[in-house]
């Protein structure tokens, strides 16, 4: 499991005085970026080679709200890896309360939109049976 | 069915040269706000009375990318409704080509976080509106 801390700032809140729902997608994207960097995937280098990660599907539950200055922790677990896609379970916690959870499917594509094999640092997770233990 | 136009601005794009995925959620939220306004719902007045809409669940499919200057249309229709929750189907298309599709479950809550009935303008709606 990868953990990534987030503090809620004013610009992330909305009229309801809670975190604007779409911002959870940004929080979990930051956690993914931190995670892939940590296992040696350089997204700038990939982009120079003409490849980018794309989100293919998201299913998300908004369970409770976060407020200004909340200290959140994003927990990322790998659910499934194949050559072409990665399915992550990402949850946002405040202390022991889960506020948000999402199942996110990620793929790598060329800049003209064709699917490409995921970087070996990611496909290796499946080979090793290393799910849930990052 | 409600239609709402969106033009892709530079700020909406990312390193991949396409619309950043989370921004589709903002696009469809703008469409929902325009739609509820058109039904006579004033969200600022609701907020003064201590009630806000919240998104409870989203299921989203990113089918094809949008790029800078694309003229998109967000189409919103009611998939199902009850006194307490509304499920909307929202599709973002470019010239009829669907790029993004989502099922969005909305509820009303008091600002203290308690569930509230939806406004009567929404309770009156049924599926496929």
Overview features:
heterodimer; A: 134 residues; alpha+beta; Thiol Ester Dehydrase, Chain A; 6-stranded antiparallel β-sheet; elongated; B: 129 residues; 3 helices; 22% helix
Task: Describe the 3D structure.
- The complex is a heterodimer of chains A (134) and B (129).
- Chain A has three helices and six strands; from the N terminus they run βααβββββα.
- With 134 residues, chain A is of the alpha+beta class.
- In chain A, strands 1, 2, 3, 4, 5 and 6 form a six-stranded antiparallel sheet that branches.
- The longest helix of chain A is centred in the N-terminal third of the chain and has 18 residues, at 21-38.
- Chain A is elongated and about 40 Å long.
- Chain A starts with a strand and ends in a 7-residue tail after the last helix.
- The model of chain A has no long low-confidence stretch (mean pLDDT 93).
- In chain B, strands 1, 2, 3, 4, 5 and 6 form a six-stranded antiparallel sheet that branches.
- The mean pLDDT of chain B is 94.
- Chain B has helices at 21-38, 43-48, 120-123; strands spanning 2-7, 51-62, 71-81, 85-94, 97-110, 115-116.
- Chain B has three helices and six strands.
- Chain B has 129 residues and is α+β, with helices and mostly antiparallel strands.
- Helix content of chain B is 22%, strand content 43%.
- The A-B interface holds A 15-18, 21-23, 25-26, 29, 43, 47, 52-62, 64-65, 109, 111, 113 and B 15-18, 21-23, 25-26, 29, 43-44, 47, 52-62, 64-65, 109, 111, 113.
- β2 (51-62) of chain A pairs antiparallel with β2 (51-62) of chain B.
Describe what is shown at a glance.
The complex is a heterodimer of chains A (134) and B (129). By secondary structure, chain A is of the alpha+beta class.
Write the layout of secondary structure elements.
The complex is a heterodimer of chains A (134) and B (129).
Chain A: E1 2-7, H1 21-38, H2 43-48, E2 51-62, E3 71-81, E4 85-94, E5 97-110, E6 115-116, H3 120-127
Antiparallel strand pairs in A: 1-3, 2-5, 3-4, 4-5, 5-6
Chain B: E1 2-7, H1 21-38, H2 43-48, E2 51-62, E3 71-81, E4 85-94, E5 97-110, E6 115-116, H3 120-123
